[in-house]
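Exercise 7b. Backbone tokens:
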């Protein structure tokens, strides 16, 4: 099972590699910067709908993002 910590680390790594701010990602996904920050800090996990949008902006497929976080 995917841990919240590994997903948060993968989100940070992918976002930084794309040179995007938390605000830019949050706006694209359709959530507040605070909500996105909760995902990166491991306090919450994105819904499947949001996960799909995250993959889109980060240029990764779902399996790729899950592989990064495994």
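Sequence design result:
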């Amino acid at each position: 099972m995917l841990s919240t910590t590994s997903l948060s680390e993968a989100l940070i790594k992918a976002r930084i590699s794309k040179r995007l701010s938390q605000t830019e990602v949050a706006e694209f996904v359709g959530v507040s910067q605070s909500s996105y920050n909760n995902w990166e800090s491991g306090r919450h996990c994105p819904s499947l709908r949001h996960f799909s949008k995250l993959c889109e902006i980060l240029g990764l497929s779902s399996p790729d993002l899950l592989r990064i976080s495994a």
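Instructor comment: Residues 4-17 form the longest helix (14 residues). DSSP finds five helices and no strands in the chain.
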